[in-house]
From TrEMBL:
Belongs to the apolipoprotein C1 family. Keywords: Lipid transport, Secreted, Signal, Transport. Its main location: secreted. This is Apolipoprotein C-I-like. It is found in: Secreted. PANTHER family: APOLIPOPROTEIN C-I. InterPro entries: ApoC-1_sf, ApoC-I. The gene is APOC1. It comes from the Eukaryota. It holds the Pfam family ApoC-I. Transmembrane segments: none annotated.
């Protein structure tokens, strides 16, 4: 009888100890937390990259470079048209 009573007390003590112990996150909770962190990181990175690309696209240097290339190409195109028009005329 004493053995049953002592085993019951030990089981009861272990149950109380397990219930009062702080719960560590399970593996599934850790993966979900990691997934949330990665999603947040990629979202922030995407937004920052998009903002940087827009700023670069609209910068004064970029606009001036595009205009210069456009003007140079137009001039080259005119010269080529004139040169080929002279060749066809002969």
């Amino acid at each position: 009888m004493k053995l049953y009573l002592s085993v019951a007390l030990v089981v009861l003590a272990l149950a109380v100890l397990v219930e009062s112990a702080p719960q560590d996150p399970t593996l599934t909770e850790r993966f979900n937390n990691f997934q949330t962190q990665v999603e947040t990181l990629t979202q922030d990175l995407t937004e920052k990259t998009k903002a940087a690309m827009e700023e670069l696209h609209n910068s004064e240097f970029s606009v001036n470079a595009r205009n210069w290339f456009k003007d140079t190409f137009e001039n080259l195109k005119k010269q080529m048209d004139e040169a080929f028009a002279n060749i066809k005329a002969q």
